[in-house]
Amino acid sequence: MNKVISTDQVIAEIPNGATVAIGGSSLSRKPMALVRALARSDRRDLRLIVNVGGPEVDLLIGTGKVAEVIFAFVGFEVMGLAPHFRRARQDGALKFQEWTEYTVMAGLDAAIKRVPFLPTHSTLGTDVLRHSAAFTTIQDPFHGETLVAVPALRPDVALLHVNLADPQGNGVVLGDGHMDALCAKAARKTFLSAEQILLPERLQTYGRDVHIFRTMVTGVVEAPWGAHFTGCAPEYRADLQHVQEYLGAARDGAGWHEYLERYVYVNHRDYVRALGGERTLGERLRV
Amino acid sequence: MTEYSVDEQIITCMARELRGEYLVSSVTAFGSLAAHLAKSTHAPDLAVLSTPESGMDAVPLPTLSLGQFLTENQRAIPLTMEDIFDAIFTDRFRIWINPAQIDQHGNVNISVIGAWDRPKVALVGSRGIPEDTSHLSQGLYYLTQHTPRTVVEHVDFISGAGYNPERRKTLDGHGAPTCLVTNLGVFGWDPESGRMFARSLHRGVTPDTVREATGFAIELGSRIPTTEPPTAEETAIIHAADPLEVRKLELLSGKEAAEKFAAIYERERQALHAAWPRRRQ
Is residue B262 part of a domain? Predict the structure, then answer.
């Protein structure tokens, strides 16, 4: 089946109030072209699931799309804190659940395995267990030990960016897989953006680098530079100049409006053009 | 006597705590340099990770894998997130964590300043720290600024479990804190009382300095040893691994940090173009 669709068709599959898992980690391989499309849509009340989140969470909060965030981390590493996330946390404007890196994975894994929870020792003795995540403790039925029960996380939609895909929805990841395969397996519908779409017989030659299987994928969008301004190893690295531009704009009202006009309220082709085009980007960021 | 700066003293102390054949995270410049220094001297079997493209035994580039997203993909053995958490659960992983706050019992916080529900300052979230503090037999922390705001009586939010009552009930010793290195000294915890104590103070640091810089009444014995300063070999290894001084980013802020950052970014770009493997076609 040919699953190649447009970005707009992906957004049409995401209803208001949907639970959306977003792949990638930190400033690496986030599906930013799809996230920007969501940010310029009229969707609202989304519930986001991220592991090490940053630009995707901040942009969607900054454009008013979000009702709740489940996260292990949201920030821009040594570049700084996430301005809209931080403001929303401090104003108590949205719902937040602070989980941890492993427990987000365990929650998705529980959904995949169709069990209500998975047990772990993680978060024992912390305020994540007592306070910030909807976890509870249980007794090991065999030996009586105390464990944490991590409830299943079932996304309606997963959004992922991959290096290569074929039209049937197989996806190649050449850098770190992060938790993308878990998102794809756990979600009711998974959509990929890809740097490039190849014929299936060419994609098959990538062997174990095929991390996302077509049986889990609903639609594929071709989006070169689709992870920008995060990186997409080994093609291009994160655009830290643009991170600085984003953070500067997100910290001030007028600057934010200009940023959105220039980079978000435009289609992906015009986004790349606004950055000086593929060639300029390549000179700065390709290795 | 060898000339050295405080960051070199801290990194050297961190390196000396690492031994054996463990995966060592390099999530910060200090942590990365400590792992590299240990591997280059007394702990050759360490398996140093690059981040966030998780690779084991990363080949050090001229600028190393410093600043976790300055470089993204090196010739390294690829690991998955599952591999890394399995290494944590089986205690084959070590990480130096740089918390926003640490308290007398070794609880650490990177989540919020103030109440979690309505924080005064929302930081970043507990990330993978709760996994570390329930599984690893070494709990390793460092601070570049030892002040009453960072070394506190009680953390505002427990991202990582120290010697708290819940730990005693459910975790026993798994994941307990073992070492804190700061700009003033090296500290440990007594597993019985769960209280922090000074193992050594860096050269020129007095007990009174530590008392004033600590947010609780820290017990300081009458004869605390002086920390062994970095040797000429150790400082040379740090300088060679970090010629751009990426590590200084953790000591700077504001305009100074931004300028340093811009300079490193450009140099890394040039270095990467020369050193990275060709892309697969």
Answer: yes
Domain of A268 in residue numbering reads as: 7-98+154-285
Q: DSSP states of A174-240 as a string?
A: -S--TTHHHHHHHSSEEEEEEEEE--HHHHGGGGGGEEE-GGG-SEEEE-TTTTTTSBBTTTB---H
Answer yes or no: do A90 and B171 touch at CB < 8 A.
no
Q: Report the number of distinct structural domains present in chain A.
A: 1
Residue A222 lies in a domain: yes
* Number of domains, chain B: 1
Q: How many beta carbons lie within 10 A of that of residue A130, not counting itself?
A: 14
Q: Is B54 on the interface with A (CB under 8 A)?
A: yes
CATH code of B28's domain: 3.40.1080.10
- Residues from chain B contacting residue A100 (CB–CB below 8 Å): 126-131
Q: What pLDDT, in 10s, does the model give residues A199-222?
A: 999 999 999 999 999 999 999 999
Do the chains contact at A100 and B120, CB–CB below 8 Å? Answer: no
ipTM (interface predicted TM):
0.95
E strand residue ranges, B163-235:
179-181, 185-189, 196-201
Domain-located, residue A115:
no
Instruction: Say if A119 falls within a structural domain.
Output: no
Residue A134 in any domain: the answer is no
* pLDDT tens per residue, range B40-91: 999 999 998 876 566 666 654 434 333 333 344 455 788 889 999 999 999 9
pLDDT classification of A25: cutoffs 50, 70, 90: very high
Nearest CB neighbour to B52, from listed A28, A71, A128: A28
**CB neighbour burial string for B106-116, b if at least 16 within 10 angstroms, e if fewer:** bbbbbbbbeeb
- Residues with Cβ within 8 Å of B252's Cβ and at least 6 positions away in sequence, in order, are B260
Expressed as residue numbers, the domain containing B100 is 6-275
